[in-house]
Design a protein that fits this description.
CATH superfamily: MFS general substrate transporter like domains
CATH class: Mainly Alpha
Order of helices and strands: HHHHHHHHHHHHHHHHH
Number of domains: 1
Distance between the termini: 53 Å
Mean pLDDT: 87
Radius of gyration: 21 Å
CATH topology: Growth Hormone, Chain: A
Strand content: under 5%
Low-confidence stretches: 1-9
CATH architecture: Up-down Bundle
Length: 423
């Protein structure tokens, strides 16, 4: 039996700090891979199909995979612990990365679809890293915990254009397509992330079920009716207004971002910018996603989840309009940065809110429900992006991203209006 290291009142125990650092570093490697997929994925599809109408395919696969695996992976981690689910996801990511790389070198559209589906399924499953973070901290620090882990992706931000730059150098010397080579390099990073997860001890779920052993001032909440073995109900999450709006806000932020990330690549490529320049623009987007996670998590803990979540959704709306209507590299990059920043606020705050309402034994599935909704919205965004670009224009896709972000804000207004009428 592991003997816990107890922190001082209000502090973070050393063991929790160590585990958090390991999870954050592991997240950075997965983050680098995901950023590369979002950044050059649309160009990869066009390269093997020749059709801009299919540009949203890779982002759509992110949505499909998130929809398919988020809840089952949550069930796995609720049953067997967080580490097995995370390692399972990272392993699938390595397989998918290899298949994707060889498919691009062979100019195979079918191989690309299979490889990216496996890759995105692995990335989605590995997002149980965030659940692991919330397990190890009491409610007053959960937003900050998510910030700690997500900040690790800042390393991934720098790695993504670096990997792309190396691929372009190798391409010039070997004659192989630069757009496919990064996928044969990523497995090394991901394997390093898996090794870091193996060193996390004890399993974060075990910590979450015994927080009072690690935090002297923590008082466990009363057990719900039915005890620890009570069945998990996704319907209860959807019936409750706070968790329902948190799920919708997370989905809207993700759908908005899915469109904008495709749009950014295509607009910049249309204006003749290089793959490395596109990667740098996405680096600023990723900076918005992760550079401010700690202060935003702190704000969610101090002033409330909703006071961070809804403004975050509003910022994604503003960013989408910048990308849709702006001109030049700078304006488009500012817009994609704002979308990343708004997504960060909405994602951190909504995840913390859902974690607050879920018992540790059910938390993987609870957050899995939210991620399933985000996957469905990402899929919808991917389906409409290509036809909008093909049949209307690039700005039309940006307007669609802004409209997606309006949905939770309208729902909030209607909910508040109904509340005031009932008083």
């Amino acid at each position: 039996m592991h003997k816990p290291v107890v922190g001082l009142t209000g502090g973070i125990p050393p063991l929790i700090k160590r585990n958090t650092l390991l999870l954050a570093l592991s997240q950075s490697f997965i983050g680098a891979a995901a950023q590369l997929a979002y950044g050059i994925g649309p160009l990869m599809v066009i390269a093997v199909t020749g059709s801009a109408s299919l540009a949203g395919l890779t982002v759509g696969l992110f949505g499909v995979s998130r929809f398919l695996v988020s809840y089952p992976t949550g069930k796995i981690t609720d049953t067997f612990g967080r580490k097995p689910g995370i390692l399972f996801g990272q392993g699938i990511t390595i397989v998918g990365s290899f298949i994707t790389g060889f498919a691009m070198l062979a100019h195979s559209a079918a191989g690309l679809a299979i490889g990216m589906l496996l890759f995105t399924m692995g990335v989605s499953a590995a997002q149980q890293l965030r659940v692991a973070a919330t397990d190890m901290y009491p409610p007053r620090m959960r937003g900050l915990a998510l910030g700690f882990v997500a900040t690790g992706s800042l390393i991934g931000i720098a790695l993504s254009p670096l990997v792309m730059g190396i691929a372009e150098i190798v391409s010039q010397r070997t004659g192989h397509a630069a757009i496919g080579l990064p996928w044969l390099m990523l497995p090394v990073l991901i394997a390093g992330g898996m090794l870091l997860v193996r060193f996390v001890r004890p399993d974060p779920k075990e910590i979450g079920q015994n927080l009072e052993r690690y935090y002297l001032d923590y008082v466990p909440p009363p057990k719900p009716a039915g005890g620890q073995g009570a069945e998990f109900s996704a319907w209860q999450l959807l019936k409750s207004a706070p968790t329902r709006l948190a799920i919708v806000s997370n989905a809207a932020g993700q759908g908005n971002m899915a469109i904008v990330m495709v749009l950014t690549s295509l607009v910049l490529a249309h204006h003749g910018h290089s793959l490395t320049a596109i990667a740098f623009s996405h680096m600023f987007h990723a900076a918005g996603m992760f550079a401010f996670t700690i202060p935003l998590g702190w704000a969610a803990d101090r002033i409330g989840r909703e006071w961070v979540m809804y403004p975050g959704v509003a910022v994604t709306l503003l960013g989408a309009l910048f990308v849709a209507l702006g001109e030049g590299f700078a304006a488009i990059t500012v817009g994609t940065f704002l979308v990343g920043l708004g997504w960060c606020a909405a994602n951190v705050a909504s995840t913390a809110l859902i974690a607050d309402h879920a018992d540790t034994a059910h938390r993987g599935r609870a957050i899995g429900v939210s991620e399933t909704g985000a996957g469905a919205m990402t899929l919808l965004a991917a389906v409409v992006t290509g036809p909008l670009i093909e049949c209307a224009s690039l700005p039309a896709a940006g307007i669609a991203a802004a409209l997606i972000a309006i949905v939770p804000l309208v729902m909030l207004a209607l909910d508040k209006a109904a509340h005031w009428r009932s008083r």
